[in-house]
Amino acid sequence: MKSILGFALALLMAGGGFAGWHWYRRDGAADAPPFRTAAVVRGDLVATIGATGTVEPEEVIDVGAQVAGAINSFGRDAAGRLVDYGSQVDDGTVLAQIDDSLYQADVALANAQLEQAKAGVLRSEADLTQFKAKREQAKRDWERAEKLGPSDALAQVDYDAYHSAFEVAGANVAVGEAAVVQARGAVAQAQAALDRAQRSLGYCTIKAPVKGVIIDRRVNIGQTVVASLNAPSLFLIAKDLKRMQVWVSVNEADIGSIKAGQPVRFTVDAYPNRAFHGEVNKVRLNAAMTQNVVTYTVEVTTDNSSGRLLPYLTANAQFEISHDENVLLVPNAALRWTPPADRIEPAARAELEAARAKPPHAKRPAGAAKEPSDHEEPVRRANLWIADGAFVRPLSVVVGPTDGTFTEISGDGVAEGTVVVLGEARADADRPAPAGANPFTPQFNRGNANPGGTSGTQKQ
Asked: Is 0.70 topped by the overall pTM?
């Protein structure tokens, strides 16, 4: 009997304890604050625009071939090694040699034609001298015939013959002079052909036009290059790798915030823990459209004296839009949350409903601030919500830039330490996990009591 009474008493005490714990949990949940909150903090805010781009050499020269032929050999760089990727070359360094046998034959042919043209000049000049001598002889014969005239001593036929011979001799001199001019023109033409052939022969030797670094070699020994409408590309030379550019593709919605001289911070996957700095050089006006998305290319210049940045690395850039120090900051969740109507304090709810019912084009009161002009930034206002028991009341603030986590705010009634609402608290936020539950299993009905709380200013 004592054992039975003891067991019943223990069972009764256990049931009472469970009921008390259940009442305590329910009463505690009812007394718990119904909102998640965070305090306004003071700190620095760096607002940025993110975009991706590619690291590019500041100036690149594409070395091509102006003649066709097979690549016979490569030249040597400043270190005496065969020209290859990464070779340091000077202005005039031989990069490659194209087979020049055909072009040497063209030079020999043009040279022979030039000599032939020069011989033609000598012959035409000799013929002109002969024509002039015959003209002098015909002139003297005609002068004697003129003195005698048609008479018994000189027949009319002979008189006419002397006159005709004199005129033919004069015409032959004119023909000889024209032949000399023509022969000299042939010499000039042959000389031009020779110069052209020699220039083509010179093009068989590919030389570096500037001092720089070869970042791409696009041919191999034995490969045949064919120059037609477009010169084939053989080498790509970067003039100076100590100055690099980042070509960043910026969305049209953000391009209005990009200006020349703006500071830029970027990272590359090759050095994930290192940040590089540069500034905006220019915004290119030739926009690109991809799947109905318009983007602009922004050139960012940066110093690469260390040589860490390599051409064509992918860069993740952050354009610094603003940098404000010692300002009031609030988590973005506080500006995104809108309370249900039954959670708003009745008096504040009536004011908000009256403001919404007001016509949008109502007459502005005297002394009210004027509308911002096209050159002024419009004032952005929003409501923060302050807990007032089981209700919330609005606090109007001026919204400034944001870094994606925090937003700068200002206005009357807001100060450092002001507690603002981030959202409604979950009723089961503090419910313990079931005994024996795997701690790595996702608990869908559990949550942090203040997931949006601040722990300091996020700095870029």
From this structure: no
